[in-house]
């Protein structure tokens, strides 16, 4: 046997499953190899011989044979030989047959061979036949038919019985032929001798072997096979079989060659449709041995005939030729009425005597014609034909006619496929046009559908719950069907459509009895093709095409598909538009800065009720997992906010199921979902429900839900579940953001409170962190060697300042201080920290900490912990908030260190100032006194001995006096420089314009002598020491005049706002300062010019810098040699408490 008949498990497939058809259908076996039809002399497929080699193979045929008989109400008789009764019944039970019922009713019976074939001890042909005939007649009287199957292994080793039983087969054929009867004989090839199997093959018209039902070409009627003329008949049969087989093989070979050629033409990707038609016609002429082939476009109603393609050498005929259809032989093949299939071709020839007369003279030359009609959906039909002038070319075979029909079917398919593709392209271009509005697309869709279906009216409606409809768009000319019409659904075609379980397709209203209907009286539509449009699973309206005249053909499957595609696109587009609208509205609500969170939440709940068509909605909060939900906000239900909703934490549906799921949860009918036991259903009657979990960070907060006391008439869509999920995500984000903002505000209040000490702030920050992170313990730790000293702690009994904590390397704080970002561990056991001393001693089950630094590097860490592991992940917001705490502590510790350093620096500065004061005192007393004595004696010498000195002596005396004067000036300037900080007046509001005018008056003589021009802009009020600022202006103006160069000084003084300070600029056009010298000019006693060039002490600009620094400002110069210089300095504006006047 062929192994291909076995399944992968080695068992035989049930090859006869569903294949033993009732007698009226027994001519077809679609699942088996080879044609199986009644043989000559047999009216039905009725007598089978099963040749098997294994029990699995036998049962694969016998069990479905019996099963189908029982299913069809036939009486089934099983004759067993080797098999026991229990084995037979068990095999039938394993196939799902109710064996006990069949036995009890008498429809099934199992008999041993000893009680049938061998009743009496030996096989008797007549007795065996009579027994089967009586069983058949009894079965026909009570049942739909009769079928018998028998195990024939009782024939083994009994040659007499074998020969007698084989001769009995003639009687069995007579018994079951033409009757509602069937016989299946079972032969074991491994037990019975080959000559018996040979007799089986010869005497059974149908064989089952190797998974195949075979029409037996070796079959010989038993009366012939066992008759006296058997040898002669056998010789004739074998010879005829050889001839028939040779003819069949030749025909089959020709047919296969023709089909391969046809496929090669049709599948050629390089040939156009028109070229393929030409090739097909040329090939047909060769196959049919006819001279001319052609394809014509025809319309019987208009007697229209136009040649579209022609092959051969027809006289006077070419593509484009038009003649009356009635003058052609093609009129004989054109169908009188519409049809969807290509009919069997028509043969007209002088050979058959069926060649009609033709009005066309050249048709006298046509002696043979073979053609068929090709009906084209949505277009005029075609004829596909071949002709010849040779009368001997007639008498076409069935294979030739079938082959021409096959060619016509391909032509039909190609025409309709091309049209279908064009319409699909038009459909896509219509709906995908980015420049077209939705209304324009709908109108284009209606026009395309009207063309596709050949119906001149198309319209799209929206139906409402109040049994009304509105025509959204319409094409065609009809008084009652226009865009904008709104009316009741009663007595309309749409009413019929909505009451129908699917689309409606009517070609003639009269045929379906609509002409007496009020809708027909009102609209007069004879043809109607329409479908319901659904958006998001909800009925939206109808898409309809119609005509006031009947349609001449039925609606094809492709037309139904095209209508369905248009309806699907409308539903999708409507749902998309609705989805976008609701998303836009939700965005407008959530982004409105004028609305509070509660107002936004209420509007979102109202929007959700409208979106889902449910009567109520709410936000529930679950404070603790083993507690009850509390309603925070609700609309459409009579429940007060903060009321408990359900108290059973261990079970339940609705919100209990929702908060435990990462996906939205819904039910359209709680009664069908088994939710009626839930307390929410019992108390509130909530029947339909859609909810989603609301989380803050990674922690469940509660649920957002919508529901109704009535069941929902449609399932919730993915878009609806996505929408409720988006709203829930925004609510969770907003709650988390508000919580985080409140925590940040508390953090700011704590850190900005000037009345709190660092220790008090640290304590409050630890409490705030414990609340924010929902952890019991908080620590501020300072690193000391391998341990950490507890500086501050909340939520523990550890002693601050002395307690020390130790951890293994890489764990807890020892890991925290090595990285710059916070460290979070939700479950210390999961990361292997459970053997750490901190875990063993204090039971720290989770950890969240960050590094704290001071001015000298790592200080320690601030961290939070709990005795149990966390059931949620630490969020980015948690890490960010902890980082803020760590940053503030680091800043405060660094600031404290800076203040300590500043105090030490101030101490040194005070000491320096004291020494400077002592120097100043010495300069004003101890240095001045000898200098005055020198000056006095020099003046005395000059007055007494002036006449005694010669010119050189007088010059030397002048040098001494001048040096003493310069020494006095330098000591005075140095004294003034040293007393800027200690001898200055308090800083207070000063009007710089008054100060500058005083300076201008002091320098009036110098200004006039130098012919200086000074331009002054508006000067502001500042906070300063008027006398010192007067010194700054005096030094800067004096320098600008002194270093003006050869031209008269031109000086400009202006002021501008720079942040919270005021910048004053004194600009001149003098000699300028080289860039590499600009840093030196503010050094004390550092001069850029010799005294011979310019007079001065070299301390003026240093004094200006010291005064400006005392005022909290800075001074700088911008200059280029030869282009002047601009000296700028900044001063603070007065405090608002010091002066009610605004500064310029």
TrEMBL record:
It is an enzyme of class 2 (transferase). Keywords: Kinase, Phosphoprotein, Transferase. Its EC number is 2.7.13.3. GO terms for molecular function: phosphorelay sensor kinase activity. Pfam families: GAF, HATPase_c, HisKA, MEDS. Residues 922-1135 form the Histidine kinase domain. Residues 1-27 are annotated as: Disordered. It catalyses: ATP + protein L-histidine = ADP + protein N-phospho-L-histidine. Residues 10-22 have a biased composition (Acidic residues). PANTHER family: PAC DOMAIN-CONTAINING PROTEIN (PTHR43304:SF1), PHYTOCHROME-LIKE PROTEIN CPH1 (PTHR43304). This is histidine kinase. It comes from Halopiger aswanensis.
């Amino acid at each position: 046997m062929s192994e291909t008949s076995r399944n992968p498990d080695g068992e035989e497939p049930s090859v006869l499953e569903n294949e033993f058809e009732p007698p009226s259908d027994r001519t077809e076996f679609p699942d088996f190899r080879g044609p199986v039809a009644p043989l000559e002399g047999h009216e039905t497929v009725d007598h089978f011989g099963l040749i098997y080699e294994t029990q699995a193979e036998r049962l694969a045929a016998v069990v479905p044979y019996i099963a189908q008989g029982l299913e069809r109400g036939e009486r089934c008789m099983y004759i067993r030989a080797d098999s026991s009764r229990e084995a037979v019944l068990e095999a039938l039970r394993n196939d799902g047959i109710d064996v006990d019922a069949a036995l009890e009713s008498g429809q099934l019976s199992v008999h041993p061979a000893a009680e049938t074939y061998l009743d009496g001890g030996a096989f008797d042909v007549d007795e065996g036949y009579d027994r089967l005939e009586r069983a058949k007649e009894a079965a026909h009287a009570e049942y739909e038919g009769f079928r018998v199957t028998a195990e024939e292994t009782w024939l083994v080793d009994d040659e007499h019985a074998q020969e007698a039983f084989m001769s009995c087969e003639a009687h069995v054929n007579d018994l079951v032929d033409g009757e509602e009867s069937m016989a299946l004989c079972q032969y074991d090839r491994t037990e019975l001798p080959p000559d018996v199997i040979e007799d089986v093959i010869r005497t059974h018209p149908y064989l089952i072997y190797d998974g195949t039902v075979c029409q037996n070409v070796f079959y010989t009627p038993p009366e012939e096979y066992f008759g006296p003329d058997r040898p002669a008949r056998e010789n004739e049969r074998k010879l005829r079989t050889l001839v028939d087989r040779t003819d069949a093989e030749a025909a089959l070979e020709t047919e296969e060659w023709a089909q391969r050629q046809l496929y090669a033409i049709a599948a050629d990707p390089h040939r156009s449709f028109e070229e393929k038609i030409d090739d097909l016609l040329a090939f047909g002429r060769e196959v049919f041995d006819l001279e001319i082939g052609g394809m014509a476009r025809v319309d019987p109603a208009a007697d229209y005939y136009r040649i579209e393609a022609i092959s051969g050498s027809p006289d006077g005929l070419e593509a484009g030729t038009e003649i009356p259809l009635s003058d052609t032989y093609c009129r004989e093949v054109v169908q009188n009425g519409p049809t969807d299939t290509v009919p069997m071709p028509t043969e007209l020839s002088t050979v058959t005597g069926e060649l009609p007369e033709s009005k066309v003279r050249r048709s006298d030359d046509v002696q043979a014609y073979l053609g068929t009609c090709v009906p084209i959906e949505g277009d005029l039909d075609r004829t596909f034909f071949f002709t010849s002038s040779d009368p001997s070319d007639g008498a076409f075979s069935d294979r030739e006619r079938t082959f021409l029909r096959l060619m016509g079917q391909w032509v039909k398919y190609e025409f309709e496929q091309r049209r279908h593709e064009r319409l699909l392209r038009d459909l896509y271009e219509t709906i995908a046009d980015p420049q077209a509005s939705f209304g324009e697309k709908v109108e284009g869709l209606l026009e395309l559908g009207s063309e596709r279906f050949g119906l001149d009216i198309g319209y799209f409606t929206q139906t409402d719950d109040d049994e009304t409809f509105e025509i959204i768009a319409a094409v065609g000319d009809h008084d009652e069907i226009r865009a904008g019409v709104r009316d009741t659904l009663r007595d309309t075609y749409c009413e019929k459509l909505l009451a129908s379980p699917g689309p409606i397709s009517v070609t003639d209203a009269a045929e379906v009895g609509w002409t007496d209907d009020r809708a027909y009286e009102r609209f007069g539509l004879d043809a109607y093709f329409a479908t319901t449009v659904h958006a998001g699973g909800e009925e939206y309206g109808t898409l309809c095409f119609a005509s006031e005249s009947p349609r001449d053909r039925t609606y094809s499957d492709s037309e139904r598909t095209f209508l369905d595609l248009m309806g699907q696109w409308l539903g999708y587009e409507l749902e998309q538009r609705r989805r976008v609208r609701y998303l836009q509205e939700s965005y407008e609500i959530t982004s409105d800065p004028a609305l509070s969170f509660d107002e936004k939440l209420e509007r979102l709940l109202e929007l959700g009720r409208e979106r889902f068509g449910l009567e109520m909605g709410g936000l529930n909060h679950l404070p603790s997992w083993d507690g009850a939900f509390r309603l925070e906000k609700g609309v459409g239900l009579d429940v007060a906010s903060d009321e408990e909703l359900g108290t059973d934490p261990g079970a339940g549906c609705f919100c209990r199921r929702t908060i435990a799921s990462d996906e939205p949860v819904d039910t359209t009918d709680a009664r069908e979902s088994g939710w009626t036991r839930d307390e929410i259903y019992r108390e509130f009657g909530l029947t339909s429900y859609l909810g989603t979990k609301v989380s803050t960070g990674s922690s469940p907060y509660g649920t957002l839900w919508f529901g109704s006391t009535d069941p929902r008439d449609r399932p919730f869509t993915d878009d609806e579940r996505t929408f409720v999920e988006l709203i829930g995500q925004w609510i969770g984000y907003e709650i988390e953001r508000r919580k985080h903002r409140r925590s940040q505000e508390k953090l700011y209040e704590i850190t900005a409170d000037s009345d709190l000490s660092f220790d008090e702030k640290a304590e409050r920050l630890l409490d705030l962190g414990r609340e924010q992170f929902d952890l019991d313990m908080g620590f501020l730790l300072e690193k000391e060697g391998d341990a950490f000293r507890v500086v501050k702690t909340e939520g523990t009994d550890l002693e601050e300042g002395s307690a020390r904590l130790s951890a293994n390397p890489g764990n807890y704080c020892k890991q925290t201080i090595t990285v710059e970002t916070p460290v979070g561990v939700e479950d210390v056991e999961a990361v292997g920290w459970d053997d750490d001393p901190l875990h063993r001693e204090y039971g720290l089950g989770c950890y969240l900490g960050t590094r704290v630094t001071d001015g000298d590097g790592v200080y320690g860490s601030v961290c939070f912990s709990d005795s149990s592991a966390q059931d949620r992940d630490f969020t980015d917001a948690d890490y960010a908030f902890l980082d803020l705490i760590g940053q503030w502590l680091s800043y405060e510790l660094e600031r404290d260190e800076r203040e300590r350093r500043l105090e030490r620096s101030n101490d040194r500065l005070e000491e320096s100032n004291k020494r400077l004061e002592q120097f100043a005192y010495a300069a004003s007393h101890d240095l001045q006194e000898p200098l005055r004595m020198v000056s006095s004696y020099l003046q005395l010498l000059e007055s007494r001995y002036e006449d005694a000195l010669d010119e050189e002596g007088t010059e030397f005396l002048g040098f001494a006096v001048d040096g003493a004067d310069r020494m006095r000036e330098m000591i005075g300037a140095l004294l003034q420089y040293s007393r800027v900080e200690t001898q200055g007046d308090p800083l207070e509001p000063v009007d710089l314009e008054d100060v500058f005018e005083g300076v201008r008056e002091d320098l009036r003589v110098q200004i006039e002598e130098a012919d200086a021009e000074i331009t002054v802009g508006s000067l502001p009020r500042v906070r300063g020491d008027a006398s010192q600022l007067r010194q700054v202006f005096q030094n800067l103006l004096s320098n600008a005049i002194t270093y003006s160069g050869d031209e008269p000084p031109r000086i400009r003084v202006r002021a501008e706002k720079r942040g919270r300070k005021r910048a004053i600029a004194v600009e001149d056009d003098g000699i300028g300062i080289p860039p590499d010298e600009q840093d030196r000019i503010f050094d004390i006693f550092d001069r850029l010019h010799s005294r011979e060039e310019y007079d001065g002490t070299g301390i003026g600009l240093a004094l200006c810098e010291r005064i400006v620094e005392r005022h909290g400002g800075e001074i700088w110069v911008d200059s280029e040699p030869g282009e002047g210089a601009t000296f700028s300095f900044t001063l603070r504006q007065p405090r608002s408490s010091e002066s009610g006047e605004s500064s310029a």
